[in-house]
Amino acid sequence: MLIYDDKLTAPFIAAHERDQMEAQLRVARDMLDQRTGPGSDYTGWIDLPETMDPEQIRVIQASADRIRRDFDLLIVIGIGGSYLGARAVIEALSHHFSAFLPADQRPGLPVLFAGHQLSADYLRDLIEVTRDKRVAINVISKSGRTTEPAIAFRVLRQQILGHLGDDQLADRIFITTDREQGALRQVADDLGLTSFEIADDIGGRYSVLTPVGLLPIAVAGLDIQSLLEGAREERARCLTSPAEGLPPCDRYAVNRILLNRKGYLAEMLAAYEPSMRYMTEWWKQLFGESEGKDGRGLIPLGLDYTTDLHSMGQLIQEGPRLFFETVVRFDKPNRDLILPSDPDQADELEYLAGTSVSLVNSRAAEATALAHTEGGVPNMEILLTERSARCLGRLIYFFERACALSALMNGVNPFDQPGVEAYKRNMFALLGKPGYEALRQQLES
Ligand code: PA5
Asked: Which domains does the chain show, CATH number per domain?
């Protein structure tokens, strides 16, 4: 289901180097699993796939079914961990051109996103295309006070749902937020809206398998039970004792740390499927926000292959030797395609007649991995056996666990993000938010 292959790291990492990491890995595993490490209040995601209440899944699915029955589309308002996971899974598993499919051929509703930036044009365009549609809105914010989603909610509520009374609003707006605190909890209570809770012990970027991700994913018609099932399977594998051979996610975490200590500054996640672009974005946030602190952390970069081999390929092959590469691939596509024979064409492709496009993609991946290894770019691969919710569930858990272990081995708290506040403080001051007058003066002097 998920196969991690690091044999091409052999020229860069010797077996004894991994062995020497054993003690550090053990400490990190203990800190994580005994809940004794930094940020241990935010480790609820570790057991979540196993412990999630089936009743909660049933309620999420029932709300999703109602949204699919009564509306034309769902707008998800959220930023960072409050939208990336849902978008990643939906895009990874959906038809690439689902907007062009007749409604009765789509498994679920179109899910559009807002509140993940501050573009006026984006909001205007969204209002325009949803004017004659029956729209449901899912506002997601753990803190309930993040500026970008709050602005989008205020605008879209007025512009798209402004003509509705409170009763109708209660049918259309779904809130996902903290159990007790924050402005959104207040809105949900005041208007009697359907709301979902984000557990106290799960932070934004580890929340895709909570209602944060599961509701939009289910509205898109995807199988949330299988997603959780995959995560459960990967969790079981991750929790096996390292004495029985390092679980793949531990090995990935150790390889990353070793390469970082050898001077590689960035990790490039390269996927050979365009549908994985947002999965890469989710991964970038997960690792960037978890590891990048105290002057430490690998820089997470995302690439689409083979597309980016024609834009970044030269740099990767022969530029500064500062990065290593983790490739994510599906073993087989959902629907393959055979290259037809056409001997009269001058395209020099006749030798491939009868070959599947997916085989060409696989050979491109093999060829690239060998070329990059040869060029001094350490390479590892995560192979998912199929493009399915179950495999994606495995991948999500694999990355979450590997990320937490890497960060702990690097001596940082994987679950906080103190640096994110710096731009917010300046923005509030420049916008004239009460309480920020002194900082404004300082910034303007
Ligand atoms: O991982 C995180 O905690 C962050 O990326 C948050 O998800 C993001 O900042 C949005 O926060 P909130 O859900 O409170 O609006």
From this structure: 2-37+228-409 (3.40.50.10490), 45-222 (3.40.50.10490), 421-445 (no CATH)
